[in-house]
Known about the structure:
With 192 residues, this protein is mostly helical. It folds into two domains: 20-78, Helix Hairpins, CATH 1.10.287; 91-191, Iron/manganese superoxide dismutase, C-terminal domain (minor pseudopilin epsh fold), CATH 3.55.40.20. The protein has helices spanning 20-42, 52-58, 61-78, 91-101, 104-117, 164-167, 171-178, 184-191, and strands spanning 122-128, 134-140, 151-157. Strands 2-1-3 form a three-stranded antiparallel β-sheet, with helices on both faces. Helix 5 (104-117) packs antiparallel against helix 7.
Amino acid sequence: MHTLLDLPCPINALEPVISARTLEFHHGKHLQGYVDNLNKLIAGTEYENLSLEDIVRQASGAVFNNAGQILNHNLYFLQFAPKPSSPAPTGKLLKQIEGQWGSLDAFKADFVAKGIGLFGSGWVWLQADASGALSIAQYSGADNPVAHGLKPLLTFDVWEHAYYLDYQNRRAAHLEALWGIVEWGKVEERFH
């Protein structure tokens, strides 16, 4: 049985980037709904005792959509901190980003552009392949790197429920603001 992820900080700790009101809906209603739906869908099936990652790799339809949204949201919420330990990645991750994009700023600009350019609802991801090569991908709906055999590192949610209460239709402003709360140490852990 899957359970709702506990937020890693108090519900108002990410303000003004993400308001407590947004988190009440985003975490407490949307994510809770995916958890409840998935548990109903997998009861008594071959997916009942699998991890979210394994469900995402194996399932399709409603089971995939709910499991994918839980996995995506869990990774999303766990990558933020009210006072990140570092304003930028370091070590191997920074070296890889600079090697592929030329600079951290160029990477961020590309990442935000892909988030802005994703039509409709979905996710923009920084992902790594087995060799450590990075790429930025746009995924619609509940899709994610795990479903494609890649390692998820960093994601920004571009479903409107993630930002509409705080930013209305200003998706770009929302995406730019998120850089201020990214916990790069967590992203680096995922890269190793």
